[in-house]
Amino acid sequence: MKPGGKGPPPPEEPFGGFKLKAVPLKFIKKLQDIVLKEAESIGSSAVFECEVSPSTAVTSWMKDGGNLRESPKHKFISDGKDRKLHIIDVQLSDTGEYTCVAKNAGKEISCTAKLIIQLDAKLLAGLTANAGSKIELPAEVKGKPEPRVKWTKADLVLKPDDRVSIDTKPGHSTVTIAKTTRDDTCTYIIEATNSSGRATATVDVNILGKTNE
Hints:
This protein has about 210 residues and is mostly beta strands. The chain folds into two domains: about 25-120, Immunoglobulin-like; about 125-210, Sandwich (Immunoglobulin-like), CATH 2.60.40.10. Helix content is about 0%, strand content about 55%. It has one helix and 18 strands. It has one helix spanning about 40, and strands at about 25-30, 35, 45-55, 60-65, 65, 75-80, 80-85, 95-105, 105-120, 120, 125-130, 135-140, 150-155, 155, 165-170, 170-175, 185-195, 195-210. Strands 2-9-8-4-5 form a five-stranded mixed sheet. The chain has a five-stranded mixed sheet with strand order 11-18-17-13-14, with no helix packed on it. β17 and β18 (about 195-210) form a beta hairpin. The longest helix has 4 residues, at about 40. The radius of gyration is 31 Å and the shape is rod-shaped. The relative contact order is 0.16.
């Protein structure tokens, strides 16, 4: 450098002397549980949504600990800080725990929520039959996990005997009463329970004709 010359200018401090701090990775809004009634949920859609900061975070989705891939069934939406998972054509098999995993600058966080489909039980609106005939009371019972089913008549648990049979299979339960009598006139209740709750349905049975012997 020549005498009296000027040297190179000192390096500038970025942004007026302030250094940028890394934005902490966090969920501004976490996932919330979704509870659907079985009768309304089948065939509909469900949406999990959360907000993550910074908006540049890379997110992925999991169900019950397994990775989800985007497909016609599962749609992933990323818009700024918003992250959404659309579940199309909801079925009972879609119940479970869903997790959003966010990664940024070597760090990883996650939040989890459940999709719950409430139990549903359906019975006939009512039944009238003649004494001596055989009647059937078919019920639809849907839920996951598979619910436990109990039938009652006049507040007493209905149990199989020489006239009464109860056939319970996944999704259905049917009470069959042979050689009906006037004493079979009553309100019958089916109760289904599992870890997601309880559902009941009732049917009024009216037996007409000869009196009991």
